[in-house]
């Protein structure tokens, strides 16, 4: 049986990773989304098991300690990760799988599944546009917005580690 590929979408906060992923999945091009785990609170309209597997911090950390994640990290005080079993199962079943993860997660997973992974790094049209997107969510305090903006420069340093770099221009 032919093995599946992993397609990763990454980029800085609020660049539109989830929006792009959802658009790709709507087009029925043979991709399935791998659902990641998180400890962050649900945003309006999000569903457990659809958008993320929402976990308590204790549950997440226990699973990380047990080695259940292919990659996991703490981002802005919340934990995110993808279960190793999820990825292995999809690759072995020949399913092309879409992951939405940060650059650190991409590099970790690339070490594990290097021949079966393609990475896309999304960049914003401008930093002002990105800040506007973050503020439009209405979910973050000023401190968190500042943290997110400070991390953007670090995130952008890693765009050349991906197979493709794509400017995500919001259509009006």
Brief overview, please?
The protein has 172 residues and is α/β, with parallel strands linked by helices.
What does this structure look like?
The protein is α/β, with parallel strands linked by helices and 172 residues long. The protein has one domain: P-loop containing nucleotide triphosphate hydrolases (Rossmann fold). Helices cover 38% and strands 24% of the residues. It is built from six helices and nine strands; from the N terminus they run βαβββαββαβαβααβ. The protein has helices spanning 17-26, 57-65, 84-92, 103-113, 127-137, 142-156; strands spanning 6-10, 31-33, 37-38, 53-54, 69-75, 78-83, 96-100, 117-123, 164-167. The strands form two sheets. A five-stranded parallel sheet has the order 2-7-1-8-9, sandwiched between helices. A four-stranded mixed sheet has the order 4-3-6-5. A hairpin with a 2-residue loop joins β5 (69-75) and β6. The mean pLDDT is 89.
């Amino acid at each position: 049986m032919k093995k599946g590929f992993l397609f990763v979408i990454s980029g800085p906060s609020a660049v539109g990773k989830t929006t792009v992923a959802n658009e790709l999945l709507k087009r029925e091009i043979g991709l399935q989304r791998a659902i990641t785990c998180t400890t962050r609170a649900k945003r309006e309209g999000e569903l457990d098991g659809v958008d993320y597997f929402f976990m308590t911090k204790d549950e997440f950390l226990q699973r990380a300690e047990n080695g259940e994640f292919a990659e996991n990290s703490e981002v802005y005080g919340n934990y995110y990760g993808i279960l190793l079993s999820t990825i292995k199962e999809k690759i072995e079943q020949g399913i092309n799988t879409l992951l939405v993860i940060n650059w650190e997660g991409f590099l970790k997973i690339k070490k594990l599944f290097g021949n079966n992974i393609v990475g896309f790094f999304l960049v914003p049209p401008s930093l002002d546009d990105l800040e506007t997107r973050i503020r439009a969510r209405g979910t973050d305090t000023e401190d968190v917005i500042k943290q997110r903006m400070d991390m953007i420069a670090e995130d952008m340093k890693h765009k050349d580690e991906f197979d493709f770099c794509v400017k995500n221009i919001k259509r009006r």
